[in-house]
Amino acid sequence: MRHPSRRSDSPFGRIRDWIDHIAQGSPSRFAVVIFTGIIFLWTFLLSLPISSASGQVTPFHEALFTAVSTICVSGLVVVDMGAHWSMFGNAVVFIGMQVGAVGVLTLASIMGAVVTRRLGLRQRLMVASDQNPMRTHAGAVSESQAVRLGEIGAMIATVAISLVVIEAIIALMILPVFLSSGVSPLFAVWESFYYATSAFTNTGFTPNSAGLEPFQDNVWLLGCLSVAVFLGSLGFPVIFAFTRWFKTRQRASVHVKLTLITTVVLFVLGWGVITLLEYDNPETFGDLDAGMTFVQGGFLSAMTRSGGLSTIDIGALEPSTKLVIDMLMFVGGGSASTAGGIKVTTIAVLFLAAVAEARGATDIQVFRRRIPNDVLRLAVSVSLWGATIVAVSSVSLMHLAGADFQNALFESISAFATCGLSTGLSEQLPESGTYVLSATMWLGRVGTVTMAAALASSQRKQLYKMPEERIIVG
Question: Any stretches that span the bilayer, and where are they (predicted)?
Fold first, then answer.
């Protein structure tokens, strides 16, 4: 057995030792490097002539944008996904959606384990931090609120198995729809698995140019895709908690309860508000009967979790509806999920803090548990940084592309929240605008917590406190 301090003499061994050294020195920075490297690898693959249906080289900015949108599971496009890519290009996109769904830190830990041939403590800590960012931010956390280090192997297995099983079940459920649409059986199978993957990973790509518009009256298909998006947006820790509950009947943690309740509440509220605002809009729901209006409102609300699929022209929505969708997209889905946004637990903590302040309570309490102040500080930081990224992106798009404020804001939030719903602005952007949205998608998927940890070379501890002085707020 090779001693840990002894370096390998073979070229591969030296590369393995070098990667292991970087992973040990700064796991979060290593994760960002790995994630970004995969994006550039996919950019190279998509720029190859074999990837395009025409056999031509795809321009760099279009290949980069598609690669970022794929690996970040965003779903925004600058080319026609159904017509531009060849079978090879579509296969690259399909695999990229699976890769991106895993998560930044989890993906890096798997890559590190493959190279170093072991799932060591560093790799386990990276996965643990991906499932609960508080580990990166504040060190040790209550194990009842996180996946235990001893369960990381099972957690990774849950990620892989849930991707395969849930996507396969959804694909089989919607296969009859595509078989009956008149396409060949082979292409029907391909579309079924593509849509199932696109929905569960919350990407929102469509393999056909017409998208879901030909199936806008198919309640079964829309329902199945909504369920897939919902499951993907819950987060792998919640899915893992369900699998653990079936075995041990262990009580659900506060994180699981908050994620489920907040997700359902936002979905129902979005469903009701979108339906009320759009029921008389002749360009969206106005020509539908009451039942289909109800279905379409629910489907669009589900897609704001980060699904990105749509049966209508998003650009034709009422301005008030776009603003509601902006807010829902910005929140996004659950932590460590395939969805983006600031996460539903973040908005839940901020809401609970406001309620506690209104009641004059000194602690934030929910489900007979107290939420510590460092969680609140992190929630405020994530929200503030998210709003800053969206603001900078919106201003940049308004300046570079001449877009109006509402569409620039909508596209920026959709990119940051890796949602994929679009007013059509993305396909009309100049080259500089595609780079802006690419950076926004990257920042949204990497996550403000991961970025903060990656940019901090070391964690400093202050051994003294400054004198306290209260300022006037409000």
Answer: 30-51, 63-85, 91-116, 152-179, 219-242, 254-274, 327-354, 375-401, 435-456
Q: Considering just the CA atoms, what is the radius of gyration of the chain in Å?
A: 22
Q: Tell me: the pLDDT tens digits for 327-371?
A: 999 999 887 777 888 889 899 999 999 999 888 888 888 888 888
Residue 3 has pLDDT above 60, yes or no: no
User: pLDDT tens for residues 53-65?
Assistant: 999 999 999 999 9
Share of the chain above pLDDT 90, in %: 46
Sorted by where each begins, the domain ranges of the chain are 12-133+146-454
Q: pLDDT at position 363, please?
A: 85
Chain centroid to CA 117: how far?
28
Q: Is the dihedral of CA 180, 185, 190, 193 positive or negative?
A: positive
pLDDT at 391: 96
Lowest-confidence segment of 39-43, 142-146, 196-200, 331-335 by average pLDDT: 142-146
For Cα atoms 31, 341, 218, give the angle at the middle one, nearest 5 degrees. 115
